[in-house]
């Protein structure tokens, strides 16, 4: 049995049918080929699947797709405007705030949620905002610098 849901995905109105047990992460990846959000742990511990749901960062592996009904979803793919990158994406590149790239979409989306709510956070607030996103490569220093650079502009 499938449920019909309606939502906004990266600024596009969508109507979709989804199984009641399917997670939002699986729906985004399997049904819409939006593969930026990744399943790392499947338990909401690593942040690789972070997207914005109604403007707030969430672990999409923990949200059922049916719970997206009537909501606004923004993924890493929805940040850029054609070939023009979002300020955060460009700053991550400029600061070398990525290595393997696995955590990067989730990290950027967590930062995007923070800056939407608090455009001028302190370094401590940035650290708190990304604390649910694990990175094994960069040591976080360049990630924090990239986010702070955008916040200071």
TrEMBL record:
The keyword Transmembrane helix does not apply. It comes from the Bacteria. It comes from Proteiniborus ethanoligenes. This is Carbon-monoxide dehydrogenase small subunit. InterPro entries: 2Fe-2S-bd, 2Fe-2S-bd_dom_sf, 2Fe-2S_ferredoxin-like_sf, 2Fe-2S_ferredoxin-type, 2Fe2S_fd_BS, Beta-grasp_dom_sf, Diverse_Oxidoreductases. SUPFAM superfamilies: 2Fe-2S ferredoxin-like, CO dehydrogenase ISP C-domain like. Keywords: 2Fe-2S, Iron, Iron-sulfur, Metal-binding, Oxidoreductase. Residues 3-79 form the 2Fe-2S ferredoxin-type domain. CDD domains: fer2 (cd00207).
